[in-house]
Design goal:
Elements: E1 3-6, E2 13-14, E3 25-27, E4 32-37, E5 70-76, E6 84-94, E7 97-102, H1 108-112, E8 120-127, E9 132-135, E10 140-142, E11 146-151, E12 169-171, E13 182-186, E14 194-200, E15 217-227, E16 236-239, E17 242-249, H2 252-271, H3 275-285, E18 287-292, E19 299-305
Parallel strand pairs: 1-4, 3-5
Antiparallel strand pairs: 2-5, 4-15, 5-14, 6-13, 6-15, 7-8, 8-9, 9-10, 11-12, 11-14, 13-16, 16-17, 17-19, 18-19
Helix pairs in contact: 2-3
């Protein structure tokens, strides 16, 4: 199996999803790609407090580069709609710096809390070897790095924003998708056209300020497989925390129902139980988490079935 490397440069960077973007790389099922990514805001280097808008990659296209800085797209030869893309997350190594902002970002949380004008920025020094981060105030936290965006373009033509997560992945911001996880996405377009970016050093469920520790990723290693034996309608993942199913909707309750419905389907597959039995079991062992509440009014919920919870 081949191993490829993608660096963040003009030819590989884009800030939107589209089935019309030509792939920067075409691989075979079973191949591995090592990506190096910018932070979500296209920054090339750390910056001083108050300079979050500076030191950005240039030039940027005003139409296709409005969103998160993504690398790709990568086409997988033979991928067709109706198949499933399996993505094995081998490694996520953060860069040496990151940032988090409280306030300023115009989402419903910051509006509700009255924080659009009152802003504070945490500037982080990150240690990828000890998996620890320290801000300028001396706060130290453990890092659990993951990619906020891993996804495929919608089937519809045109350019689509990166902010809202979709059934084909994208800006899912699920903190469970750390190294050692396997993500499954329903393929929407020929070739799949996978892109990734928006590295996070650490994030709590909800991503309540609108950002996590936004950081460049020195290396994210992903291995891709095509699956024609796992028809799915929403993302699912096998993570260190357990099996995860995700739901996205403009209504938080509906997002919860989508994630739960997908979990009942997964439990039926794994344990050969009826849906009523799966629901009864889920009520005892499945946890429902709010993935994020800030991505363009598209809420995310994920259900977790811990490994070994049912024997």
């Amino acid at each position: 199996m081949a191993v490829y490397t993608i660096e963040p440069e003009r030819a590989t960077l884009h800030g939107s999803f589209s089935r019309d973007f030509p792939p920067v790389l075409t691989i075979e099922s079973g191949d591995t790609v090592h990506f190096r990514t910018l932070d979500a805001g296209w920054h090339m280097a750390p910056f001083a407090k108050g300079e979050v808008e500076h030191r950005r990659f240039d030039p940027r296209d005003p139409e296709r580069d409005k969103g998160h800085a993504l690398c790709g797209p990568v086409a997988i030869r033979g991928a067709q709609p109706g198949m499933t893309l399996e993505i094995r997350i081998n490694e996520v190594r953060p860069g040496a710096w990151g940032w988090t902002v409280g306030g300023r970002i115009p989402n419903d949380v910051n509006r509700r809390l009255g924080l659009l004008e009152d802003v504070d920025e945490l500037l982080w020094t990150l240690d990828a070897d000890t998996l620890s981060g320290r801000d300028q105030y001396g706060h130290t936290i453990a890092l659990h790095p993951f990619m906020g965006v891993m996804g495929l373009p919608p089937a519809e033509p045109g350019i689509h924003p990166t902010v809202p997560p979709r059934f084909c992945g994208g800006n899912m911001d699920c903190k469970e998708l750390v190294a050692g996880s396997v993500l499954y996405l329903p393929i929407t377009v020929p070739g799949a056209l996978f892109s990734t970016g928006d590295g996070h050093g650490a994030q709590g469920d909800g991503e309540v300020s609108g950002v996590a520790i936004e950081c460049p990723i020195e290396r994210v290693s992903l291995t891709f497989y095509l699956r024609d034996d796992m028809p799915i309608q929403t993302p699912r993942a096998n993570t260190p925390a357990g099996w995860v199913t995700l739901g996205f909707n403009t209504d938080l309750h509906e997002a919860t129902m989508i994630a739960l419905d997908a979990m009942l389907g997964l439990m039926g597959e794994h344990y050969s139980v009826s849906r009523p039995q799966a629901l009864a079991l889920a009520s005892t062992v499945v946890d429902m988490h709010i993935t994020q509440i800030v991505n363009g009014k598209m809420f995310g919920v994920h259900a977790i079935l811990p490994h070994g919870a049912i024997k």
